[in-house]
Design brief:
Helix content is 39%, strand content 10%. With 232 residues, the protein is of the alpha+beta class. The chain has three domains: 4-34, no CATH class; 54-131, no CATH class; 144-222, no CATH class. Helix 2 runs parallel beside helix 4, helix 3 packs across helix 4 (105-121) and helix 6 crosses helix 7 (199-206).
Length: 232
């Protein structure tokens, strides 16, 4: 992860992003993955440079408490462990969630994503931290689908197609391109409940988004959702 500054330029109705890197990029690596250093594709997201929020600190330590309950590892040990993991992930960048931190909202989100990844990967039960999870973020919904975890209760989940993307009774899921449909991860209980009371009442009851997300075909295949995908 390399720090950079980006300027938005408009020219004759076209918009361009001009990125100024703080250090020289690895040109050999760019050429290896792109075939050229002259023009290549990048994934990017808008960084929130505001100071990390107290809510993020509360969520971080609530999740550490969940891991402590599951593993018995002390909270201070877990804090240092994830701080070190953050430094490794960001190639040496330091982070702090103290009241006088200079870390940003985006920095804290990266740290939280690392913790959430760990909990999903090792099936750590969400308890205290579950109530504070950023359920309005696509990242959390994606992880629920990826690990087949119900976005409401954390139990084993099926992949639910949201209203407008449903297959219908008698439909053959193996002949559907699921990458073109919006999905959520719900256990049998909550899957039945959303169909019974409807998405609006379900969203109001559990304070969760019900629009769903789209998953790429590689993720869908990895989680075992068979279908007929357009690029196959």
């Amino acid at each position: 992860m390399q720090r950079s500054r980006t300027q938005l330029i408009e020219d004759d109705g076209q918009y361009y992003l001009v990125t100024m890197l703080d250090e020289k990029p690895n040109l050999d690596h760019i050429e290896t993955v792109s075939g050229t250093t002259g023009q290549f594709y990048m994934d990017w997201e808008l960084a929130d440079i505001r100071k990390a929020r107290p809510q993020q600190r509360r969520l971080f330590f609530a999740l550490l408490s969940d891991i402590y309950t599951w593993s018995g590892m002390p909270t201070d040990f877990l804090k240092n462990l994830f701080y070190l993991q953050y430094e490794a992930f960001t190639f040496g960048k330091h982070i702090s969630l103290s009241d006088v931190t200079t870390s940003s909202v985006s920095d804290a989100n990266v740290l939280l994503d690392l913790v959430i990844d760990f909990m999903f990967e090792w099936h750590v039960p969400f308890k205290k931290g579950y109530e504070l999870l950023p359920r309005d973020q696509e990242y959390y919904l994606f992880q629920c689908c990826r690990h087949r975890v119900c976005m409401i209760c954390g139990n084993r989940a099926d992949i639910h197609h949201v209203v407008g993307s449903t297959i219908g009774s008698g439909g053959d899921r193996t002949k559907v391109d699921h990458s073109e449909r919006y999905v959520m991860a719900l256990c049998r209980k909550h899957h039945g409940e959303i169909e019974q009371i409807g998405p609006d009442k379900f969203s109001a009851k559990y304070h969760v988004p019900v629009d769903g997300i789209k998953l790429d075909k590689e993720t869908l295949k990895r989680i075992g959702l068979k279908g007929k995908y357009s690029s196959d």
